[in-house]
């Protein structure tokens, strides 16, 4: 089976994990601090705060920015559910902006039309490894005095105009098992705001400054040293792994050009796409439907995935929530109907890439 994602751990990961096991310090300790320091350098920020998972990192970022009931946060309508849940967990109201179909990221022009005196933040999602159009969003944030929370769960090492994901506002990353850096579970919040970083470090640790010295109401959101050990072992490879993903994407796009009804992904001008997913669109002009293509690929032992089959609000549990303000988002609806992700992970061989291209051409040509 040619898989969408695959995790391979090297000897350094084994050595670091074994060192943690032998130390007896399994909870948050020196390796978490090291992981934070090294990840901050990759994200181009002064502060990185490790937490237990990617959803928690989003929820913590929302909380740290003081967002709550009565506030509005603008998010893309086409994203993973954690983006929406993080805002609702804070008691805030969600407004949905449409996406640009060429990049699958939030449409900055639509965001502008949604801003009002209740808007507290915009949460662009760097989807599939490509950063959102950050320059106009940064300008909007400055002129409208609103915050930016970057959902960078799929964008470790991605860039926009030479500036890394997670450095344009408060960044939120996930280290779930399928991500470009994978620790099983784990998350990271990035920022240049020292006060916000201090708040997050207190909040994740039951509000404690020191043992039994409570300064605020907090929670237990800590990362373990076992997770950090796995993460540290992968950071040194992130750049080369991302470059291999980019090369794999180039090979796929070159091989799949000219197929009727198949739209291959594009890289934003001035951006650095890290291809967490290589996502195509299967349009009505294609010889078979999206599901038909996925089924046929499965028969040929090639994995594919639909991320995501609906707009994020299109479930009864959200449609019935008064804090979910549904907008007209035609591009998001179309994307949900058409997207299909293909393997592009760094472990693919040239032969496997050729198999993918040959299989798709055989089905759609």
Description:
Helix content is 39%, strand content 16%. It has 365 residues and is of the alpha/beta class. The protein folds into 2 domains: 11-235, 3-Layer(aba) Sandwich (Aspartate Aminotransferase, domain 2), CATH 3.40.640; 238-364, Alpha-Beta Complex (Aspartate Aminotransferase, domain 1). Strands 1-9-8-5-4-2-3-15 form an 8-stranded mixed β-sheet, sandwiched between helices. Strands 7-6-13 form a 3-stranded antiparallel β-sheet, with no helix packed on it. The chain has a 3-stranded antiparallel β-sheet with strand order 12-14-16. β10 (208-210) and β11 form a beta hairpin. The longest helix is centred in the C-terminal third of the chain and has 18 residues, at 238-255. It is globular, with a radius of gyration of 21 Å. It starts with 10 loop residues before the first helix and ends with a helix. The model has no long low-confidence stretch (mean pLDDT 97).
């Amino acid at each position: 089976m040619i898989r969408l994602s695959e995790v391979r751990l090297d000897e350094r990961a084994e050595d670091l994990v074994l060192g943690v096991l032998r130390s007896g310090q399994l909870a948050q300790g020196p390796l978490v601090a090291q992981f934070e320091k090294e990840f901050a350098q990759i994200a181009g920020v002064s502060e990185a705060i490790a937490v237990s998972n990617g959803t928690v990192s989003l929820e913590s970022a929302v909380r740290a920015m003081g967002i709550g009931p009565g506030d509005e946060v603008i998010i893309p309508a086409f994203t993973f559910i954690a983006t929406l849940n993080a805002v609702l967990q804070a008691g805030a109201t969600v407004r949905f902006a449409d996406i640009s179909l060429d990049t699958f990221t939030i449409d900055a022009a639509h965001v502008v039309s949604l801003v009002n005196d209740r808007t507290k933040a915009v949460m662009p999602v760097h989807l599939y490894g490509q950063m959102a159009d950050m320059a106009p969003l940064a300008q909007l944030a400055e002129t409208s005095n609103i915050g930016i929370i970057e959902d960078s769960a799929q964008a470790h090492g991605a860039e926009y105009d030479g500036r890394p994901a997670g450095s344009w506002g408060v960044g939120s990353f996930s280290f779930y098992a399928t991500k470009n850096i994978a620790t099983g579970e784990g998350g990271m919040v990035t920022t240049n705001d020292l006060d916000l970083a201090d708040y997050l470090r207190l909040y994740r640790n039951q509000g404690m400054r020191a043992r039994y010295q409570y300064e605020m109401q907090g929670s237990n959101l800590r990362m373990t040293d076992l997770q950090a050990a796995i993460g540290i072992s992968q950071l040194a490879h992130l750049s080369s792994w991302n470059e291999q993903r980019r090369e794999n994407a180039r090979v796929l796009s070159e091989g799949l050009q000219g197929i009727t009804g198949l739209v291959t992904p594009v890289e934003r001008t001035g951006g650095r796409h890290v291809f967490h997913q290589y996502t195509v669109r299967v349009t009505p002009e294609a010889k078979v439907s999206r599901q038909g293509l996925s089924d046929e690929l499965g028969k040929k032992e090639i994995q594919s995935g639909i991320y995501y089959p609906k707009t994020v609000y299109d479930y009864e549990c959200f449609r019935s929530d008064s804090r979910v303000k549904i907008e007209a988002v035609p591009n998001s609806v179309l994307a949900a109907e058409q997207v299909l992700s293909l393997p592009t992970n760094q472990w693919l061989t040239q032969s496997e890439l050729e198999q993918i291209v040959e299989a798709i051409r055989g089905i759609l040509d």
